[in-house]
Design a protein that fits this description.
The protein is mainly beta and 123 residues long. Helices cover 0% and strands 48% of the residues. It has no helices and eleven strands. It has strands spanning 4-7, 10-13, 18-24, 33-39, 46-51, 58-60, 68-73, 78-83, 92-99, 112-113, 117-122. A hairpin with a 6-residue loop joins strand 5 (46-51) and strand 6 (58-60). It is globular and about 40 Å long. The mean pLDDT is 96.
């Protein structure tokens, strides 16, 4: 069993930046592909970014390319999402996930989910 805890969400003005963190329990963090998804009220949970076990491969949704950066520090059991040039459309609850067998591109790829952290971008 893996526990994931997100932090770093909050309210920011359009054009600003936020850095989300996801802390994982356990000693096998390095064996999981990690990802970020987000969900706005009334919408489906959608893919944002994913990263391979070593961090050598990253993947982003078209809507956040060139603005968001996913990274990980296996020594700290933590994955990050650096969000720049934020837009009101980025407002959502952001969820961290861990996948044991494949890059988490779809919700079904994830084995574990965090509780989520709210990101609100004002215009």
């Amino acid at each position: 069993q893996v526990q994931l805890v997100e932090s770093g969400g909050g309210l920011v003005q359009a054009g600003g930046s936020l850095r989300l963190s996801c802390a994982a329990s356990g000693r096998t963090f390095y064996s999981y592909r990690m990802g970020w998804f987000r969900q706005a009220p009334g919408k489906e949970r959608e893919f944002v970014a994913g990263i391979s076990t070593s961090g050598s491969i990253t993947n982003y949704a078209d809507s956040v390319k060139a603005r968001f950066t996913i990274s990980r520090d296996n020594a700290k059991n933590t994955v990050y999402l650096e969000m720049n040039s934020l837009k009101p459309e980025d407002t959502a609850v952001y969820y961290c996930c861990a996948a044991s067998r494949a890059m988490p591109v779809s919700r079904g790829d994830a084995d574990y989910w965090g509780q989520g952290t709210q990101v609100t971008v004002s215009s």
